[in-house]
Amino acid sequence: MRALVARRLDGPDAIELIETDVPEPAAGQVRIKVAAAGVNPVDLAVSAGLAVQFGLTAPREQFGLGWDVAGTVDAVGAGVELAPGTTVIGLADLLGRSLKTHAEYVVLDADAVAATTLDPVAAATVPLNAITALQALNAVDGQTVLVTGAAGGVGGYTVELAKHQGLTVIATAGDQDEELVRRLGADHFVPRSADLATAVRQIVPAGVDSLVDAAIIGVGAQEAVRNGGLHVHLQPGPRPPHLRAITVLQLFLHANRHDLTRLVELAEAGVISTRVAETYSLQDAPEAYRRLTKGGVRGRLVLVP
Q1: Is the Cβ–Cβ distance between 190 and 211 less than 8 Å?
Q2: What CATH architecture applies to the domain 2-126+274-303?
Q3: Quick count: other Cβ atoms within 10 Å of Cβ 299?
């Protein structure tokens, strides 16, 4: 089969499309024939060597690429109830795998997979970003939440899920993204060009109860949080300080069928959206990676083997 890997860790130009054996599922695992796989910023980070630099995984000769996947169960290991032929989404949450979802086949733990009826290209935009948003909101306390990077993948799902949960959502994104962010469900919009803390406190004078910092603004966004509130930080490495008794939670997501199934249900019901920006072949994947590097992508770039 064909698979994308990173060996030199020099970024998109060093990504290699290799021929390798089709992987076999062990007990508790499934093999998926990949129909579509999303491209995410974390893939850029892995291809550039940042995962090793941050100490999130040990150095190795080859890193597989890709976290999101949609496709069809092709084979199963012992103890797995999912039947071959089932259409699924999945999430490869281990950084150090030598082969991941940017391939023609991928093996995942059965608990990292959920059945779906969604179109595979659309479905491939859901797992990583939506599960990050869901698990961030699971930690949120209070009624008001500030979401940074609200037009992006994680931020957009956070807005939709927070609104679905009945929270009051204040969202910030690029000045040109107001229509999109309000359509996703934001109650209030703060353009990126504004002074964030000042603008938020004009809406909520005491400050918001919680912050989900998808844009990684840091203390500048934390200034909009009330004393004793919560700051959910979504990046490895050093985290912002616990100022004014604010709890800073550094979130590291984990794949699990319960959350993925819930997200599939919400997507199939139209509660959360599937936003496909553009599709690319595996052969053209470096172009997709370079496009993501430039920023400003609204929705996900998706690889179709």
Answers
A1: no
A2: Alpha-Beta Complex (3.90)
A3: 18
Residue 289 CA to residue 296 CA, distance in Å, equals 13
List, edge to edge, every strand of the sheet that includes 2-6: 15-19, 2-6, 63-64
Query: Which H helix or E strand runs over 40?
Result: none
Per-residue model confidence as pLDDT tens digits over 166-200: 999 999 999 999 999 999 999 999 999 999 999 99
Handedness of CA 47, 49, 52, 53 (dihedral sign): negative
Distances (CA, A) of 247 to 34, 210, 214: 40, 9, 16
Sequence letter at residue 84 = P
Closest alpha carbon to 128 in 210, 46, 192: 46
**pLDDT tens string 95-140:** 989 999 999 999 999 999 999 999 999 999 999 999 999 999 999 9
In the chain the beta strands, taken as DSSP E runs, fall at 2-6, 15-19, 29-39, 63-64, 68-76, 87-91, 105-109, 113-115, 144-148, 168-173, 188-191, 208-213, 225-233, 247-250, 276-280, 300-303
Q: Does domain 129-250 have CATH number 3.40.50.720?
A: yes
Return the domain boundaries, the chain: 2-126+274-303, 129-250
**What sections of 102-177 are H helices per DSSP?**
120-123, 127-139, 153-164
